[in-house]
Write a structure and sequence with these properties.
By secondary structure, the chain is of the alpha+beta class. The protein is built from 3 helices and 7 strands, in the order βαββααββββ. It has a single domain (3-146), classed as Hotdog Thioesterase (Thiol Ester Dehydrase, Chain A), CATH 3.10.129.10. It has a 7-stranded antiparallel beta sheet with strand order 1-2-3-5-6-7-4. A hairpin with a 2-residue loop joins strand 6 (121-130) and strand 7 (133-146). The longest helix is centred in the middle third of the chain and has 19 residues, at 59-77. The chain is globular. The protein starts with a strand and ends with a strand.
């Protein structure tokens, strides 16, 4: 089973702390699917302000986590020359649903799948779970562009 740790993910993505949200990627099926881990901690950067005394991971950061997991899955499956000096930009989010609040201290598992690719445009779907309880799901698209 292929597994990437945070340092290996950092080598694939341009994101850096505090915005590098993915801690691990495993069960990788090349250019097809993977499971990502986001360790949502009590000291995560968003906790202090969202919401004081009752922290919740913002839905937009769950969507960002989906996007980062998909970008890492795709970059890991491509030849390095294909993604070197490139960025993956989110193009659209469809049918995002937030079913339960993600409360720190937890391990958020993202099960993602590439459902279509056409040139530099990819479409993905994913589901987010904490302790086997579905927290969110979404369909989104992204594109690979040159760094400027």
């Amino acid at each position: 089973m292929t597994k990437l740790n945070k340092d290996q993910i950092r080598d694939l993505l341009p994101h850096r702390e505090p915005m590098l949200l993915i801690d691990e990627l495993y069960d990788i099926k090349k250019l097809s699917s993977a499971t990502a881990v986001v360790n949502v901690k009590k000291d995560s950067f968003f906790v202090q302000g969202h919401f004081p005394g009752q922290p919740v991971m913002p839905g937009v950061l769950i969507v960002e986590s989906f996007g980062q997991a998909a970008a890492a899955l795709t970059a890991h499956g491509l030849d390095k020359s294909t993604y070197e000096n490139k960025l993956v930009f989110l193009m659209g989010v469809e049918k995002a649903r937030f079913r339960n609040p993600v409360i720190p201290d937890c391990k958020l598992l993202l099960k993602i799948q590439a459902i279509r690719s056409h040139g530099k445009v990819w479409k993905y779907q994913g589901e987010a779970f904490v302790d086997e309880k579905k927290m969110a799901d979404a369909i989104w698209s992204a594109t690979i562009v040159d760094k400027k």
